[in-house]
Amino acid sequence: MTTKFIHRLDTNPKPLVADGAIGTVFHDRGISFETCFDNLNVEQPALVAEILSEYIHAGAEMIKTNTFGANRVKLVKHGLDKQVAKINRAGVELARRVVDASFKDVLIAGDVGPLGVPLAPFGRLQAEEARAIYREQIEALLLEGVDLLLLETMVDLKIVAEAVAAARELDPNMPILASMTFSRDKRTTLGDTPVDVANFLTDLGCEVIGVNCSGGPVQLLNILKIMRHAQPDARISVMPNAGFPEQVGGRIMYPAVASYFTDFGLAFWQAGARVIGGCCGTTPDHIRAFREAIDENDLETVLHDVQLESYVPMEMYTEPPEQTRIQKKLSEGKFVSAVEMDPPRGFSTHKLMAGASLLADAGADCIDVADSPMARMRMSPWGVCQMIQKELGVDATLHFPTRGRNLLRVQGDLLAAHALGIRNVFVVMGDPTAIGDYPDAMDDYDLVPTGLIKLIKSGLNAGVDHSGTKIGTPTSFFVGAALDLTPSNVEREIKLVRKKIVAGADFFLSQPVFCPDSARRFLERYEKEYGKFETPILAGLLPLASDRHAKFLHNEVPGISIPDKIHDRLRQAGDNGAKVGVKIAEELVGEIRGFAQGIYIMPQFNRFDLVAEIIAEIQA
Fold first, then answer.
1. Integer-rounded Cα radius of gyration of the chain
2. CA distance 558 to 200
3. Taking each helix axis from N to C terminus, what angle separates 608-619 and 350-362, rounded to the nearest 10 degrees?
4. Which in 120, 175, 201, 559 has the greatest CB count within 10 A?
5. Confidence check: pLDDT of 350 > 90
6. Does residue 313 register a pLDDT over 50?
7. Pick from 438, 432, 439: which is nearest to 404 by CA?
8. d(C-alpha 134, C-alpha 69), whole Å
9. E strand or H helix at 595, and its extent?
């Protein structure tokens, strides 16, 4: 049996234009997010009718009932779980009255959203319970006479299967449009790809399959193309958000303006969409943009004459890989500042976060968190990195030593770090346990830093582990490596650095530089052998506190050589050694700018205030 909805899709060459967001418009008109939007069908029917009417006047040929969250599970939060039938039937009745008053042939989609609770085995809700909950809502929608059922913003394919089963039990001929939502990595929250979704929904027998919500038009155009390639004969729906949401002044805002949607109406059409509408952040103006783009063109023009490059740059169709802030600044040629911090010995992070906050306020681009420096027991740096990024909004770099980790732990730890939102990783061998608190602790390793860099860049970032097994979505690590710009054995260091570059190192953090001329000569020597040093360098900067401090570093710390003229200045400074040390550091930055893309500051004695002075001077 061919329904009105399916007949419209199969006989009209142009895609059907659906409406946009309802909740967004409610909120724009002063309705709090704490309000039960679905119950406005009963409490403020005139407002609901007004919004639906505006969408019809904007050109929508299909409107949704205001019943997205009108299921027992979501309504119970408002004490309305006994009102499921009343709210849903009121939603359809309102939509029908608006359509009749418009004197237009507009379809009504009974809107059914997710339950908001996970299905077993990820939650306590059993499949038969989910089916019963959906049956209750869908039955009320069908009793009032909808033209189709819209299952939208779904995240779990098994839940979709229960909703479809409930609908088929009630009315086997009712057409179903099932639409999933995806995260930024083009997967559902349970890890299903667009191909998985397209195949599953098609096998389920849904008359129309689709994608909605997720991100803006660019992301959904990508997903639409993937789904269409997987199921070329399927009818596909696409309903994007008005871009990714942003929080501005306590309000959720969507950046994509209505005019931006005009071009994508044609892009979606050309990519094969049969239903085009909007989701979160869209308004009648966005739908009007779709409507005008489709009305002003015909199938022949769209399929043959319209070049998408004239509407949207082709490079936008492939989303760029996720970039960290420091990665972006380096790619733009900006001078960056990173600061090293040690995790606390205990579990209290108050002092560390206070110092990190000072550095962030001063303008530091990144906080580097060491891992058991000097082989001394400290808190794991993962948690510190996550706290810094979440609470301070500044990039963090995780120091990741290979020493003490076998292949299993290396990969497992990296995946855990990625799951916590950590993307900047500094790969280093690590200090030997013999010099630390536990000299008898295991010191084995399966990979040297060069091997780990290669594993990350050619393996995890490509979506496979060391054995070649797929890990699902590829990671997006930005990988740093160690560099000594003033080594005692120049030839050996150059060969080692070259291996790290070939392995895929994205940037280098160097040992402290006190002799910029020596660093320049090292890079010139490298260029004679291998060509220009292209990989960004953050040159090490260690603010000195006194002449005694400088002598200790010069005589007892391998790899650090401090010129006599610096010793002389510090000796003459006396008690003002710290201030002179800051001045020396600022002068070094001026010389470092000639060959490095940033500085990597290593505070001594937790003098973050002195580091903040240096960063402020750099900013100025």
1. 30
2. 60
3. 20
4. 201
5. no
6. no
7. 432
8. 11
9. none
Alpha-carbon distance of 254 to 505, in angstroms, equals 36
pLDDT > 60? residue 250: no
Q: How many CB atoms lie within 10 A of CB 72?
A: 18
C-alpha closest to that of 562 among 577, 580, 547: 547
In terms of DSSP H, where are the helices of 71-193? 72-75, 84-102, 127-143, 157-170
Q: What token pair was written down for 60? A: 């929508």
What is the rounded CA–CA span in Å between residue 600 and residue 50?
Answer: 58
DSSP labels, 431-449: --GGGSS-TTS----S--H
- Among 510, 439, 446, which residue's Cα sits nearest to residue 481? 510
- CB-CB contact of 370 with 410 (8 Å): no
Asked whether residue 575 carries a pLDDT value surpassing 90, the answer given is no
Identify the three-state secondary structure at position 512.
strand
pTM of the model: 0.64
In this structure, the number of other CB atoms found within 10 A of the CB of residue 314 comes to: 9
> How far is 565 from 544, CA to CA, in rounded Å?
13
For helices 157-170 and 194-203, the axis angle rounded to 10 degrees is 20
- Going along the chain from its start, the domains and CATH numbers come out as 37-174 (3.20.20.330), 334-546+578-619 (3.20.20.220)
The DSSP output letter for 608 is H
Q: Average pLDDT for residues 456-470, to the nearest whole number?
A: 88
Q: What is the DSSP string of 311-380?
A: TS-GGGGSPPPP--HHHHHHHTT--EEEEEEPPPSSS--HHHHHHHHHHHHHT-SEEEE-SSGGG-----
Tell me the pLDDT tens digit for each residue of 263-291.
788 889 988 999 999 998 899 999 999 99
DSSP state of 3: -
Assign 512 a pLDDT band (cuts: 50, 70, 90). very high
* Rounded Cα gap, residues 611 and 10, in angstroms: 67
Question: For residue 366, what are the contacts with CB-CB under 8 A and spacing of at least 6?
Answer: 325, 326, 336, 337, 338, 339, 394, 395, 396, 397, 424
Coil, strand or helix: which one is 206? coil
Q: Is 538 helix (H, G, I), strand (E, B) or coil?
A: strand
Nearest Cα residue to 98 out of 26, 29, 43, 50: 50
What is the chain's length? 620
The residue to which tokens 């091997």 are assigned = 451
Asked if 276 contacts 15 with a C-beta cutoff of 8 angstroms, the reply is yes
Alpha-carbon distance of 408 to 405, in angstroms, equals 8
Helix (H, G, I), strand (E, B) or coil at 203: helix
Assess contact for 336 and 326: CB atoms under 8 A: yes
